[in-house]
Amino acid sequence: MDRDQYYMQLAIEEAKKAQEREEVPIGCVIVINDQVIAKGYNLRESNQNALAHAEMVAINQACEKLKTWRLENAELYVTLEPCPMCAGGIVMSRVNRVIYGASDPKGGCAGTLMNLLQDSRFNHQCEIKSGVLQEECGNLLTMFFKEIRSKRKKSKNNQ
Questions:
Q1: What are the CMP/dCMP-type deaminase domain coordinates in residue numbering (predicted)?
Q2: Is 53 known as a binding-site position?
Q3: Would you say 63 is a known binding-site residue?
């Protein structure tokens, strides 16, 4: 297992924590100098907060821990391609490198729908690596939504 796979596996463990809470299973870890400095997973439903995406939770935690908003040497590992809000948070916090697992055809802003992380009009750009443990990351999401659809179907049939 290479270094990126190792840290993505940690992000997957965070995603599983979200899944246990019936949250969309997306997880994130932030690494500086081969040390995990922050972890996060989706808490949007639990906190009823639209901003509580895995990346935003982890960025907030990293900034608090380091007592700075600048995460210039950081690598951010996330199981799903960042959305527009998270991509903006990544750019604004000056994360150096973003590594993600599954692409997001409906909201991905690290190359799928658009690429906010490398847009030269911003004063900061990030290195991007996609597809790390892509199948495992994608399967977490696929199974989660399949289970939700199944529960809804059963609920309708029981009415």
A1: 2-120
A2: yes
A3: no
Shortest CA distance to 75 belongs to which of 98, 44, 52? 98
* pLDDT of the chain, 159 residues: tens digit per residue: 899 999 999 999 999 999 999 999 999 999 999 999 999 999 999 999 999 999 999 999 999 999 999 999 999 999 999 999 999 999 999 999 999 999 999 999 999 999 999 999 999 999 999 999 999 999 999 999 998 888 787 777 776
Cα distance between the two ends of the chain: 49
* CA 54/CA 57 separation, integer angstroms: 5
57 phi and psi angles, rounded to 5 deg = -60, -45
Whole-model pTM: value is 0.94
Give the separation between CA 125 and CA 49, rounded to whole angstroms: 27
Q: Please say if 23 is a catalytic residue.
A: no
Known binder of ligand: residue 126? no
Q: Which of 55, 72, 135, 136 is catalytic?
A: 55
